[in-house]
Amino acid sequence: MDYVTFSLPPLPVFIKGAESIFPKGKRHFRRTFTVFDLLYVKQGCLYMTENGREFTVGGGQYLLLIPGREHYGHRPCERETELVWLHFLLPDYTVVSDCPASRQTVMEKEATYTEPIQYRLSIRQYGELKQRERAEQLLAQLIEPNVERDIDRPLRQLLLFVEFLWHLQKQELPVPSAAEQVSAAAVAYIERHFSEPITLEMLAKKLRFHPDYITRCMQKTIGMGFSHYLTYYRLSKAKQWLAETNETVEAVAKRVGIDDGAYFSRVFKKMEGMTPTEYRRMARRT
């Protein structure tokens, strides 16, 4: 199965969408399009071919037709078929085989003070819409005609389209296992309290799990135990503040929960291969 992967931001470009009805005996015409064309069948069935590959798109299913690939209906509809089509552009995308997203990979980078959060979405080319009622509600809002020529409408359509793409992405994410849920709770706790003198025992008490079990879950899911991830996260925040502020090394150390400036510098050099001051100089040269 092919997946379309792309970064977000930048935002996709929504062009146009509408509802169509294919009567019995009609088939989709042949063309090679320059934009993405998403077909969602509400009822009936479409028989589509793209680059020689056949798809049967039944009620509740969608097909994402990719720019530059010839597509056409290889067989007429056997009964009246109601569908929604959406045309859009993605500024930067790739098409890959068998590349489903996971909860660990969909967020590529967290936001800083100067850079936005970065997602990497991976949308299945062909599949079934889950939570169909909500998805069809989004589509109905998205293709609603702008009869009053409201200048706000195109912007609202773009936001609805991004929400629809996120709906497609979320339905592909696997339900987290018990270990993943424990690990996610531990990570969230660390990221909320990293500036405080927290310990594994405090975390265990909060989550009501044995410390060894939490460690095993974190190692299995993110490859780091409590202490390692706490240090990693503290240093990631320290690097951000070293690059973006004029605070002293000691002040940055205290902000990330390390009161001993000398100890902070030793740990920083061990983990990053340079002192905090050297890192600040390097970050400001780039």
UniProtKB/TrEMBL annotation:
Q: By its UniProt entry, which Gene3D superfamilies does this protein fall under?
A: Homeodomain-like (1.10.10.60)
Which parts form a coiled-coil structure per UniProt? none
Example GO molecular function: sequence-specific DNA binding
Q: Where is the HTH araC/xylS-type domain?
A: 184-282
User: Keyword set for this entry?
Assistant: DNA-binding, Transcription, Transcription regulation
Q: What is this protein called?
A: AraC family transcriptional regulator
Q: Which organism is it from?
A: Geobacillus genomosp. 3
| Source lineage | Bacteria, Bacillati, Bacillota, Bacilli, Bacillales
